[in-house]
Amino acid sequence: MEDLDFAHVARRQFDRAAPFIHPLEGWKGMAEMLFAPERIIRLTLPVVLDDGYIHNFEGYRVLHDNVRGPGKGGIRYYPEVDESEVIALATLMTWKCALVDIPFGGAKGGIRCDPKRLSKNEQRRLTRRFIAALGDDIGPHTDIPAPDLYTNAQTMAWIYDTYSMMHPGTNNLPVVTGKPLDLGGSLGRDSATAQGLYYVLEHLVAINAFPDLPSLVGAEVAIQGYGNAGRNAARIFSNGGAKIVAVSDSRGGIHDPNGLDLGLVDIQKEETGSVVGVPGTKELAPRELLTVHCDVLIPAALENQITTANAGDIDAKVVIEAANGPTTPEADDILAERGIPVVPDILSASGGVVVSYFEWTQNLANEQWSEAEVQERLRAKMRTAADSMMATRAALLDKLGAYSDAWAERTGDDTPLPRPTLRTAAHVVAVQRCRRATEQRGIWP
Ligand code: NAD
After folding, report:
1. Whose CA is nearest to atom 30 of ligand 1?
2. Atom 18 of ligand 1 has which residue's CA nearest to it?
3. 32 and 65 both lie in a single domain
4. How many domains does the chain have?
5. Going by CA atoms, what residue is nearest to atom 41 of ligand 1?
6. DSSP per residue over 180-239, as a string?
7. Which of 109, 214, 246, 293 has the fewest CB atoms within 10 Å distance of its CB?
């Protein structure tokens, strides 16, 4: 049975990178220190619902690592949120921020709730209760939340307002990112995750990283999830000349090999709450979308979607992750064996945190950058990070034998190391940066 505990998945990804990280004194202690979360907060959040009953929600905020800067990471509202998931997501945020080289560590938060069954007023009370309970465990220079699954600019506005009521008289805008434009938000933040993903793929295609995919123009794209990440990806890829052949949401998917009319899809989603039912399209079960024939598959919904159960059936030339953790390590192995490259979340889903960093920077300086400036900086950040991943992978492949020998000497395990994937290379870049920063700062005291 495949172990789908998300914290264990994050650990297996880390362990695959470990043999390629330059050996150092006390390696094992350093590895454990880099991987272990620094702080886990678990809260009970009583909220009076509209019907007068009190419901006790569970809330979490995890600061994984802050060696390179304050914690940064989204808050999700979802029925399956638990401690293990939030720890794993915070860990990925540490690697993400290091890989795109922004001065943050990793954090994440979540409330176990079904936002679809909460009124707007209930969501506001729940958000305020959560932020009040976190108190000074978040702050502009300690831990800075952002949107994630089923939270949005409105949620961020409530977070800002609550924190600001508790800290009057100072510029509190940098306490949270993903805010509405009228409240210190950044141009380009709303679509930044999808836009960053597009910049990465556009660049990798341009440098011929995927010979089977020579151009995005005319490429057939399937997208799982039609929220912030998925819906924006559909629009951006379509504007770039790609053909969106399938999309899905929690209720199901739709498929048209001739290309979907996104205008009609948006109307359907607005009117019915789901993409399912657009005239002239074939209906798919939610997971069926992942095995549709396409050139580019974009999982943009949840973790653990591509597993050993379906990795053998993926029918794409490239998988590029918009969601956090959609592919398990064992599915990665199957896809690698089948020659299907996976562009990893810590690179391709990092556009959101990059523009969050831009928003934070603008808030600290009381500035507003133009859309063009945001896009130019985002594209540059994404390309540089993609280049670091590619160069590192090439260097690792070049010295695979030497790394295997060194690992055998260190651990006594002489099984040759597997060829590093893009994910492993991206982790190596990120973990190395955190390791260097840790060594440079020295371990307190
Ligand atoms: P969102 O709430 O805006 O949208 C989520 C979408 O996923 C919805 O369309 C929902 O219907 C769909 N969905 C839920 N369950 C599904 C299922 N079983 N099958 C198919 N679709 C399903 O959330 P989002 O912000 O777009 O986040 C999506 C993913 O992207 C998450 O993994 C999130 O962590 C990641 N992500 C988001 C951001 C961001 O800035 N919003 C940044 C980086 C990564």
Report:
1. 323
2. 250
3. yes
4. 2
5. 148
6. -GGGTPPTTSTTHHHHHHHHHHHHHHHTTS-TT---STT-EEEEE--SHHHHHHHHHHHH
7. 214
Q: Is 108 among the residues known to form the active site?
A: yes
Q: Do 160 and 261 reside in the same domain of the chain?
A: no
Q: Are residues 301 and 392 in the same domain?
A: no
Rg (CA), the chain: 21
6 in a structural domain: yes
Query: The CATH number of the domain where 35 resides is what?
Result: 3.40.50.10860
DSSP label at 111? E
197 within ligand 1 shell (Cβ under 6 A): no
pLDDT tens digits along 369-384: 999 999 999 999 999 9
Considering the domain architecture, whether residues 143 and 69 belong to the same structural domain is answered as: yes
Residue 413 forms part of a structural domain: no
Q: Say yes or no: 36 and 167 in one domain.
A: yes
Instruction: For residue 83, count other CB atoms closer than 10 A to its CB.
Output: 17
Output the CA angle 161-167-172, nearest 5 degrees.
60
In a domain, 346, yes or no: no
Domain shared by 152 and 3, yes or no: yes
CATH code of residue 263:
3.40.50.720
Q: What's the domain range around 135?
A: 1-173+181-189+351-365+373-408+418-445
User: Full-prediction pTM beyond 0.90?
Assistant: yes
**C-alpha of residue 81 to centroid of ligand 1, in Å:** 13
Catalytic residue among 72, 96, 108, 243: 108
Kindly give the distance from the C-alpha atom of residue 121 to the centroid of ligand 1, in angstroms, as a whole number.
Answer: 22
Residues 38 and 141 occupy one common structural domain: yes
Any bridge partners for residue 243, and if so which? 220
Closest CA to 279 of 271, 268, 269, 290: 268
Q: Over the stretch 305-353, which tens digit does the pLDDT of each residue have?
A: 999 999 999 999 999 999 999 999 999 999 999 999 999 999 999 999 9
pLDDT digits (tens, 9 = 90+) for 55-111: 999 999 999 999 999 999 999 999 999 999 999 999 999 999 999 999 999 999 999
Residue 150 CA: nearest ligand 1 atom is: 2
Give the integer Cα–Cα distance in Å for 126 and 162.
Answer: 11
Q: What H or E segment, with its residue span, contains residue 39?
A: strand 39-48
CA gap 435, 437 in Å, rounded: 5
The Å distance, Cα 419 to ligand 1 centre, comes to 31
| 437 alpha carbon – ligand 1 mean position (Å) | 32
DSSP per position, 356-380: HHHHHHHHHHT----HHHHHHHHHH
Atom from ligand 1 closest to the CA of residue 352:
40
Round to whole Å and give the CA distance between 248 and 383.
29
Same domain, 326 and 355: no
